[in-house]
Design a protein that fits this description.
RVT_2, Reverse transcriptase Ty1/copia-type domain-containing protein, about 120 residues, single chain, two-stranded antiparallel ribbon, two-stranded antiparallel sheet, flat
Length: about 120
């Protein structure tokens, strides 16, 4: 089994007044380098159809019901992996003298093909 490459996404989060609020960093696996039946088996994750959302909102509006929205921050990062997945160290954060060592992922990273399915199994 080979180690997957990764990429780092850097982003600025701006406040309402336009000033910098936060610096955000996200490590993403290069899922496009994964091979089916070697690095992953299943990728399916259920998704809500837009028509269902519209019907739900129409019912809420018609009967003057209240509705709340929730969000799970960094949801994919909480999903435990079923398969054994290795990732290379993040460029710029490699330990000197240990550049050839890799990480064994216990939980999903953004970009893994199986991350959505694993997260769905976690919340079911």
């Amino acid at each position: 089994m080979r180690a997957l490459d990764n990429t780092v996404q850097l982003r600025l989060k701006l406040a309402a007044d336009g000033n910098i609020d936060k610096y955000k960093v996200r490590v993403c696996a290069r899922g496009d380098h994964q091979e089916y039946l070697i690095d992953y088996v299943e990728t399916h994750a259920p998704v809500v159809d837009l028509v269902c959302v519209k019907i739900f909102l129409a019912i809420v509006a018609k009967y003057r019901m209240t509705m709340r929205q929730g969000d799970v921050p960094a949801a994919y990062l909480k999903a435990k992996l079923k398969e054994t997945v290795y990732a290379k160290q993040v460029k710029w954060f490699e330990k000197p003298g240990e550049e050839d060592k890799v990480w064994r992922l216990k939980k999903a990273l953004y970009g893994l093909k199986q991350a959505g399915r694993e997260w769905n199994k976690e919340i079911d």
